Request: fold
Amino acid sequence: MTGPVTGRANRRSGTPLVGTWGLPVLTVVLFVLFAVLLPQTFPTGTNLRAILTNQSIPALLALGATIPIVTGRFDLSIGYGIGLAHVVTMWLLVNTGLAWPLVILLVVAGGCVVGLVNGLLVEAAQIDSFIATLGTGSVLYALTGWITGGGRIVPGAQGLPPAFTDLTNSTLAGLPITFSYVVVLGILLWLALEHLPIGRFLYVVGANPRAAQLVGIRSSRTVVLAFLGSAVVTAVAGVLLAAQQQIGDPSAGQSYLLPAFVGALLGSTTIKPGRANSVGTLVAVAVLAVGLSGLQQLGAAFWTTPLFNGLTLLAAVGLAGFAARRRQRAGAAAGAAGRSSTPAPGPPTPEAPAPDPQHS
Reply:
């Protein structure tokens, strides 16, 4: 009896196909629409490679932002962190003569420090993640301005090491190599969140911190690790941004903050609605990439991009909250259905008479 009842409860309250697969279908619909409107330029290999090249770093940053969101926290420092990472990378390459692999290690180590500071501010100092990461982000932006003096870092006539620029300028299987980085990170994050204990810890801490404590999960350590992972991904994205742009621009990172959060939050409304997940984040980034590319090729004004991102962020936050509430209702309905299907206890069985001692 529990199967049909639970199935009806799920259909009424929580798991329609449109919630799970609506965003991937929208991606396909948008691609077909722009392909019909722009048959000469949009559905071409050149445009596809351009989309993958332009959106790879935002996709990496969105995956990084997803990690703290799983725990119910937000890392607003990622936009400033990627700016500082790419400026420090350029400064070290241009002014110190260090080998580029060592430069990458130093920048990633700096990212670890930033993530550790963010995590300790949120967990040890008990500062709200919005405030804490906004504050650290402002400090990172100040460091960026101090390093550059407000100007750009331009390499000399010899340029940057070719092996370093090949990190973003080469191809793999005919596609930009940066796309392979996104695929690898997406798979690693999917494995961690869906199939490893750390993923279960992150989800439990985000869903019910009290329950996490009762089952022995160290919430503070888990949250610090989440911020650490976000900061490492941000540092790597900053290195790749330096290799791609080949110039140190102190204001370059700020434009990545909003798309990253749009992708992470909108991704929590698809594939697994109500839960931040890596596959959903990549689908959301694909929607943004296709939509922006099509609008730009149609001749949309420059302010269309921030308008599109802002409206999509508002929609993403609203849809994420709706999906979470619907998921809670689905669980409540399934639990109620399970309780109602439990057979009621029958009448008490009369006890057997005690043996007569005279006849024993």
The chain has a mean pLDDT of 85. The first helix runs from residue 2 to 13.
